[in-house]
Design a protein that fits this description.
This protein is α/β, with parallel strands linked by helices. The chain has helices at 47-58, 89-105, 118-129; strands spanning 6-12, 15-22, 32-37, 62-67, 110-116, 135-141, 146-150, 155-159, 165-170, 180-181, 187-189, 198-200. It has a six-stranded mixed β-sheet, with helices on both faces. Strands 7-8-9 form a three-stranded antiparallel β-sheet, with no helix packed on it. β7 (146-150) and β8 form a beta hairpin.
C-alpha cells in the first residue's frame, strides 16, 4: 500500500527544519516509530530514505525521515558541496533531539533511531551522549567510521568507510608546530604564533 508522506516543519535556532512524516494506522503511537537521519550532504527525501520509509510502512511501521539543515533554513534537496558552511556534528545532534522531542509530543512511546552513512555516525553519537528512555533501539546502515592509530612510519587518521584511505598523516621527526591551531581558531603551519587566520612560516 502506497502511503503519502507529509512534510512537517519546525523552527529551531532561527532555522526552519523539515522532515518527511509517514504514520501508519490510527494507533501508531504504541508501536515503534523510526527516526531516520540521512548521510553527508543528503536529505530526508533522497531515494534510499524514501524507499526505506515505504518498506517500513509496508511492514506497519511509522517513520520520520529528517533533513538536517546544515545551517540552511527550509533546506530541500542535496546540499551544494561548493557552499561554505559552519554546521557541526553537535548541531546535527541538536536537530535529532528536536525531532525526537516532536515525536514524543505526538505521543510516540517507542522510537528506533536509524542513521545512514554519516547519519549513522551522528545517530550512534546521539544515542550514547543524549540517551532518552523512549529510545527503543538503534539501527546503523553503512555508518561513516574513522580510526586513529600510529606505527613506526606515521600517525594517521583512517577513513574506514571509504577504502581505508589516510587523509591525515604525520611522519616521525616532524618539526614542532608543524600544524598548530590557536585558541581563536587561527591555523599555523610551522609556527605556534599565527599572525592571521592562516599563517605559513617557511625557513
Amino acid at each position: 500500500v502506497q502511503l503519502r508522506a507529509d512534510e512537517v516543519s519546525l523552527d529551531h535556532a532561527g532555522l526552519k527544519l523539515n522532515a518527511s512524516w509517514k504514520p501508519v494506522g490510527d494507533e501508531w503511537q504504541s508501536g515503534p516509530v523510526l527516526l531516520m537521519t540521512h548521510g553527508t550532504l543528503a536529505h530526508g527525501r533522497m531515494e534510499i530514505m524514501e524507499t526505506l520509509q515505504q518498506l517500513f510502512a509496508d511492514a506497519g511501521l511509522s517513520s520520520l525521515s529528517i533533513t538536517l539543515s546544515l545551517g540552511q533554513s527550509d533546506r530541500h534537496g542535496m546540499y551544494d558541496c561548493a557552499t561554505l558552511h559552519a554546521h557541526k556534528h553537535t548541531d546535527a545532534l541538536d536537530e535529532i533531539g528536536v525531532w525526537l522531542k516532536w515525536l514524543k509530543e505526538q505521543g510516540a512511546e517507542q522510537v528506533v533511531l536509524l542513521g545512514h552513512s554519516r547519519g549513522g555516525n551522528q545517530t550512534a553519537w546521539f544515542a550514547v551522549e543524549r540517551d532518552d528512555p523512549v529510545i527503543h533501539k538503534v539501527v546503523l546502515i553503512a555508518p561513516q567510521t574513522w580510526d586513529v592509530a600510529g606505527n613506526e612510519t606515521n600517525f594517521f587518521v583512517r577513513d574506514v568507510s571509504n577504502g581505508s584511505t589516510l587523509p591525515f598523516r604525520i611522519r616521525p621527526a616532524a618539526p614542532t608546530s608543524s600544524i598548530f591551531i590557536d585558541v581563536d581558531g587561527a591555523v599555523g603551519l610551522g609556527t605556534s604564533s599565527p599572525d592571521e587566520d592562516f599563517h605559513i612560516k617557511t625557513s
